[in-house]
Amino acid sequence: MFKTNRTDKSGTLTELDYTVYGRMIPLTKIIQHMREMHKDYQRETETNETHTRHLRIWHDHSDILNHTYISIMVSTLYDTASFITDEEYRAKYPERPPADVQAMVEKPFLYVLGQSSSSDIDQLSYIPVRVDDLQNLKAQSGEVRYVMRFFSGDGPPRQFEAGHQRGGNFACLCGIPSKDHMNLDNAFQIDVPSSQERLKIFKEGELWKGFSLMRPSPFANLKKQDIMRELVARSHDTDDKNKVELQEELSNTLRGIQRPPAMFSTPKNVFDLLHDYEVPPGEPLHDITNVVQNLITELPYHISNPDTLKDFEKFSTATIGDKNQI
DNA sequence: GTTCCGAGGAGGGCTCTCCA
DNA sequence: TGGAGAGCCCTCCTCGGAAC
After folding, report:
1. How far, in Å, are A22, A260, A305 from residue A210 at the CA level?
2. What's the superkingdom here (predicted)?
3. Which residue of A184, A198, A254, A260 sits 20 to 30 Å from the alpha carbon of A17, by its own alpha carbon?
4. Beta carbon of A283 within 7 Å of strand C?
């Protein structure tokens, strides 16, 4: 259920409720499809022991025909214990062209596509069904055990998935203040908190009890008395401190943690399903985007062959052109 | 019917002003 | 003097109208 505003012919602004539906393909069905697609790449074993496959989730928002959607994809992580190598594939199927086995195995499958804004409330509305589906997957697992292992994606989806604030002084999931991001010594020493550690920090005080899927930010816009109550519950000294100092102390304590990790947002106990689930603090392709851009811009100046230079300049123009970011 | 563009929203932080 | 809130900044996302 979503809310929207409409202005009628008289100019009166009214708030309307409307219902939209998302489509989820159950993980059991996706995995059935994956097995069919991966059968040529699977390693044959002689034992009957239970095997483990690791799943990776990715999601992002975009608009299609003026309506905003969330798209969630799922893929299997390549593992040589479960899948053959490129060389083994060539030896097994000499009549076929060579294949990038890892790329084929890690090809993503559509999991959820639904209408949703990027607000926390809208995105959290898809969590209960994702948790139910994960429980259903475990109940139906056979000789292969599927483990939800990684989330990969852009910055905002990672922040949502980890229960982290968007932007601000603690924009990174590692918990280092933005002003210290250039401090490599600090960055290399920090231990990025796991989902369980995030949940522990989140629940150390009292205000987290006000969290719900419809009120996802219990630490936002607090009065001074509420900040003091939360800090006292976390065993902090609040004497002789003004509101700014108290707010800073609470922010430094939470280090950007705003809510439970998304998959831990329901009352259901999902620790046995998600105890290995990781939301990495970085997104490699985005993080090195400017390095790649600099390389593409710089390389033509080091090419002497005119034909190669012409081809590369075409590539550089098509890739970067007038864009601010590739 | 589709794509492009740009103003505005979401969620954060900082600074300034008002007022008790 | 200090709390509350307005106003502005940031990035990425949203969404309605214009253009094709």
Report:
1. 28, 12, 66
2. Eukaryota
3. A260
4. no
